[in-house]
Amino acid sequence: MLLSRTLAWSAGLTALLVAVVLASATVGPADIGVREVALSILNGLALPSFGTGGIRWVRPFAFDVSGTAETIVRTIRLPRILLGAIVGFALATAGTVMQGFFRNPMADPSIIGVSTGAAVGAVAFIILPLTIPFGLPLAAFCGALVAGFGVYLIATTDGRTPVATLLLAGVAVQTFLGAVISYMLLHAGDSLERAVYWLMGHLHASTWGRVRIALPLVVVLFVVLLAYARDLNVLLLGEDDAQTLGIEVERTKRILLAGSSVITAAAVAVSGVIGFVGLIVPHMMRLVVGPDHRILLPTSALAGAVFLVATDTVARMGPSELPVGIVTAALGAPFFLYLLRRQEVHAL
Amino acid sequence: MIDVDDVSVELGGSTILSDVSLSVEAGQFLALVGPNGAGKTTLLRTINGLLSPTGGRVRIDGSEIDALSAKRTGRLVATVPQETTLSFDFPVEDVVTMGRTPHRSRFSTASTDDQTAVEVAMERTDTTRFAERLVGELSGGERQRVLLARALAQETPALLLDEPTASLDINHQVATLSLARELAEDGKAVVAAIHDLELAARFCDSVALLSEGSLLATGSPSEVLEAGRLERAFDVRTAVTTNPVTGTRAVTPLSDVPPGERRVHVLGHGERTARVVGRLADAGIEVTVGVLPAGDVATATARSIASEFVTAPPFEEISTERRRAVSELIERADATVLAGPLEGVNAAVAAESDVLVALEGTEPPAGTPTVETTGLLDALRELPTTQPTTRP
Questions:
Q1: Could you give the ipTM of this predicted complex?
Q2: Which CATH number is correct for A72-341, 3.30.2310.20, 3.40.640.10, 1.20.1250.20, 1.10.3470.10?
Q3: CB of B82 within 8 Å of any CB in chain A?
Q4: Cβ distance of A243 and B101 shorter than 8 Å
Q5: Beta-strand (E) ranges in chain A?
Q6: Identity of the residue in B69, B84, B90 whose CB atom sits nearest the CB atom of A292
């Protein structure tokens, strides 16, 4: 019953995601229609073929599309759209897990300082005169992990990590790192604009390279977190109850915390701090499919992908492009307040 | 089944339990009683593995709990928690199904065993009819039953209940404990922390009395629930009687006012007399009663709280000896209260009292002041003391 519901919802949302991706790929300065977009994508598909000479990659389609259109779709628009989908997917996954984990409707992926840590790493890299391939996402990723792990260590005594302590330690560390960021910005000089732009959260710098890094990480972590969906349900009963029901609470908490922190770090590293996706998408989906994480987690993740692709399309529709973080916050915050007024933001 | 062996628990440097040993066999229902902070909940949390004992060990079915994984523990002992904030929107059936967690592997879907266990548990706790409802919408009593169903779905040989009746109406209290009793009879070892001593005595085979982290006594309810021991544990005087309906121990805490100051003799029998005796004793008045027919309701009350009383077999001539004893009590009392029908020897001895107060509705000798039951204490306070109080 639950499984078929989950599959139906996931199939529907995947179809919606495909539609949004196609629609998004038609948006931009060059006028390219849906048909050309679809054909360009199909032309780019490569399928493995297992022959005598090992695996060969075969491109089964060769539709007749204008070369310029195909290049624009495949090298400019598609990586950005896919990266948006991956980031949205990752943030909504992490948000769902964190809200369940903290039993707090205001929890979001950055609650234990991961995003702020990423920001410190990124801003430091931007203002330092260094050039390393993938240096910026790498610096952000490392900053995120150091901050997340630091908060975890601070909040842990005798092998136990009380959720309330974790929350407070997260707030304190975020405040401290905020001060570090402000100080660095003060001395950023010429890099100030780049640093601020990064902090706003954007998908401007998307490349296939970033897609290839982020995708496997996000997929693997999502599968791990999904495997713990039932444990998350039981944790909602309270930690003592969960323990007596056979859940190794502290170990499960560590896995959930690490999984959601790394998936967030992967997202933030390639896109900067994009707020509200991880906060409101899980709430929206909880209203629709209910609180069971076995269905909530996959549907939230897909809805997060749809949401971020759609908002990023809006962000690049205007005459001058906006960082998508501005759009998600501008759309997300009023919507969240609306849900709040209707009392539909449920206590967990 | 459950063996608690010399268990001590320290939390934050202070000792919560010291050297507690007890064992509960399959088929036995043990009540943990004791004042707040005695360590009842801590003991339960040590038995179900939430706390590690700093000394001693807990074994269930021969396995030492502290050494087991959460999953193995979850197959041995199920706990009905005191209060769970089940405010989230899961349907009842899903919550009961969570009881199967220790039996399922991470990726398996529910087996037929799981489904059967859940169905049986819900049937047993009478929760089947609201299987589809959301837990957050249930009343406190219904929610308690859902938690009990969840624990039953765990299919464990040992079951712990932490204050299962604390927030329930009396009908649900009885229903919950009856079910726990049945589960014990089916072969589970059941332990419940219970506030209400009478309920404990009524439903449990044995009682363990905890006080300040130590076990004061274990045994049958009639052995353990004894006024002196209860006073030591709870620091309050109690009257331990037998509940006429259930035939089990009834424990009535008395007020802290020490007896003394005034001494009143009560004449009469029946329920009203029992009430008057209770109220006077509660107000700190030293009460004597007699002559009471043996086996009267008031006799049970007098036995537990009156400082002295005289009984006589009903329908027999009162012996001179008893007659003299009552006269003496009346003489030593500051006042005599006429609380019931004035019959036989009581009519004669009433005349001996210098200060006689009658309650409304009795038929006192002419000229006796009459007061309402509610005004009795005030009336007694206004009376002059006719003689210095003699303390025995």
A1: 0.82
A2: 1.10.3470.10
A3: no
A4: no
A5: 47-51, 54-58
A6: B90
